[in-house]
Amino acid sequence: MNICLLNDSFPPVIDGVANVVMNYGSVLVNDLGANVVVGTPKYPEAEYDGYPYEVVPYPSFDTTEFVKGYRTGNPLSIREIARMTEFQPDIIHTHCPAVSTMIARILRKETGAPVVFTYHTKFDVDIARAVGDGFLKKETIRTMVSSIEACDEVWVVSRGAGENLRSLGYNGDYRVMSNGVDFSKGVVSTEMVESVTKDFDLPDGTPLFLFVGRLMKYKGLPIIADAMRILSEKGVDYRMVFVGGGADAAEIRDMIREYGISLDVYSDGKVSHFEGKVGYPGKVIFTGPEHDRERLRAWNTRADLFLFPSVYDTNGIVVREAAACGLASVLIKGSCAAEGITDGRNGYLIDENAESMANLLMKVSGDLGALYDTGLNAMDEIYISWADSVHMAYERYGELHEMAQSGAFGHRKHQSLEYLINSTAAILNGTEKIFFDIPREIYGGMKENFEEFCDNIVEIRDSVREELSEFRENIHNYMKEDDK
Asked: Helices (DSSP H) in 181-234: which residue ranges?
């Protein structure tokens, strides 16, 4: 089959969903012989050659200051959409409810291929971080949910993810399709572990706790920091290693320093000095980002317990990566990441607070052998490879393709994009002005010349509203046709 994958993030930006798309593409091409094209916003200076599939980067706007390092794609990129249309996809699989799903719906109009949407992450949290909790958040969520409901089939990565989507107003059906991991099952060699960890103070027999991922507070990192402080105050010896970077990295490091339990490292990863208070040796290590998958496997092999107190993540791929290496995780009761976990058998469940985590860690630290056994159960019971995950997806692709061929999704008239093309000029001309209608506290630092326009903001706002009114009417007509 010809498969078109769409996502708003892709290298050079690396996040969980970008990793999903890359693994989907690789398995589909290398294992299943499918033809794959990936559509994603273009980043300046980025190279898109060298993948086993074609990447179609479409024009994007620089919103990296506004949305934490991400650019926003132009959904009316006519040339690139035409290229993906020429590919004649049998399945269009979008992994983001924003621009990717807009383009997916346009491609469906042009090709008749069914659209699959996968709900990976609680996007309402990300929207709130970008625009606050007011009217703009509500309208953005309403628009995205409407776009999701227009897809032919909706997949979620966990039952909890489906429940979250319902809480946002989604009323359609969904299918649980778990993501896999690209770690092979098993540990790396002792030599590899020693090579990766030799420059760090990690005494044998001392419990080593690990977190891997973006250093964002909403992943529960303050709970980890506070739990480590409690352990230190009670005289428990341990090491806590954070592998990753992120928008809140500096704040988490400052919190650890304030507690007096940190161990600084140089940029090359070598230990610099202890900076703890008297009686508090440095126990917490920040290694910075690590993109080498084998080195990450080495950290998971060396650790005794993976800490992931996140209620934000809908699937927790890192939990299954840890399980691949025989490493059990500590998770929040009732969280999406805790689905499939039986407390004390293939992982550990705690309440969402530092005291609960600290109590558990003190309890289990005295028996590292038991942690090893729990990790083996996690390897056997919750691990799923990307090969298995994508094979299941491919089987469903085939079913959806046959359903589309038989008319199960309704007749779709091939429709020109003429009225969207007519709107392109207005959007491109108005894009810069649109940003000025955003409250200044949201605006952040997106444009250095913001002050220059303050005196003219009323005139600019009126101009934008006039352009948006025309564009809104065009989009409304397009959506009415799409619903038909």
From this structure: 190-197, 221-233
